[in-house]
């Protein structure tokens, strides 16, 4: 628990009835900023994330899930049987002094437990209640089970993340974290601000698929323009030579993001192909076109002529939006993150 009275959210109390990643990640941020977050788990197995891999030893030597430990840091916890009358009474007493409650059950579960919005609002009129689910509280998919991969698929995002033509599953849970955790976090903060101003809480319905669909700007812009978004063929999915990943002589990889003409020109000079400067999307070379693919092939051949270390040295001196593709362990050792205080030994 963060007991710093100067923290931005000090004095707020949040009841967290969620499991797995999206809800706990949202309340992790609230706890980091000083809120008193009370994690409520059932009296059985508790949060399912506890049993997921990877398992590590905590300070007491017990085996725990590393992600569970991370997203539930700084929180207090309690086990309550919400199916029992005594358990519901315990939760309602916590509601009396809470500012917000977030839950991640399927639609209708809270009402069946006798803890629906009407009950909670009557108990504490200032309470903000957030329901976080995959598909929202209404609609034909409302009761469907799902996880991150399903939300990515349903929202059209997974179709746009492809490798060699096949959908690629990212090891960053975009649905859970962008559509879920960050959407719930921002919605909760706005609702809490409203409750402070008016003295009246509100109910908010956050769906992870809603968050993904609402943020799929580039694909929707292509549709609005009358074209079909194509993974690996559009401007930001590898169809432009200035924005894609290239292999080096030793199997390393460089992420090139020279979207603006000035960066593309600097990039072409740095790799010794100044004649490719006119071959840019802004000068008429359409992403995904045969011309763009030929340009990308020439760039690929040049970058494969030297190992990764050579190109890192080159682009340390050239401002062209180029970075090596780092494995997670190497990313943790990147001096930038140490300088920012994100990584400590």
Report the total helices. Answer: 14
Q: Helices and strands, in N-to-C order?
A: EHEEEHEHEHHEHEEHEHHEEHHHEHH
Large-scale geometry: elongated
Radius of gyration computed on alpha carbons: 24 Å
CATH class group of the largest domain = Alpha Beta
* Number of separate strands: 13
Mean pLDDT: 97
Largest sheet: 6 strands, parallel
Structural class: alpha/beta
- What portion of residues belong to β-strands? 15-25%
Side-by-side strand order of the widest sheet: 5-2-1-6-7-10
Q: What is the first-to-last residue Cα distance?
A: 22 Å
Q: In which range does the helix fraction lie? A: 25-40%
Number of domains: 2
Description:
This protein has 345 residues and is α/β, with parallel strands linked by helices. The protein has 2 domains: 202 residues, Crotonobetainyl-coa:carnitine coa-transferase, domain 1 (Rossmann fold), CATH 3.40.50; 97 residues, formyl-coa transferase, domain 3 (2-Layer Sandwich). The chain is built from 14 helices and 13 strands. Strands 5-2-1-6-7-10 form a 6-stranded parallel β-sheet, with helices on both faces. Strand 8 and strand 9 form a beta hairpin. Helix 1 crosses helix 7 and helix 7 packs across helix 8. It starts with 12 loop residues before the first strand and ends in a 6-residue tail after the last helix. The mean pLDDT is 97.
Write the SSE topology.
Layout: E1 13-17, H1 22-32, E2 36-41, E3 55-57, E4 63-65, H2 66-71, E5 76-79, H3 85-96, E6 100-103, H4 109-112, H5 117-123, E7 128-133, H6 148-154, E8 162-163, E9 166-167, H7 174-198, E10 203-207, H8 208-214, H9 217-224, E11 243-247, E12 253-257, H10 261-270, H11 290-303, H12 308-315, E13 322-324, H13 328-332, H14 335-339
Parallel strand pairs: 1-2, 1-6, 2-5, 6-7, 7-10
Antiparallel strand pairs: 3-4, 8-9, 11-12, 12-13
Helix pairs in contact: 1-7, 7-8
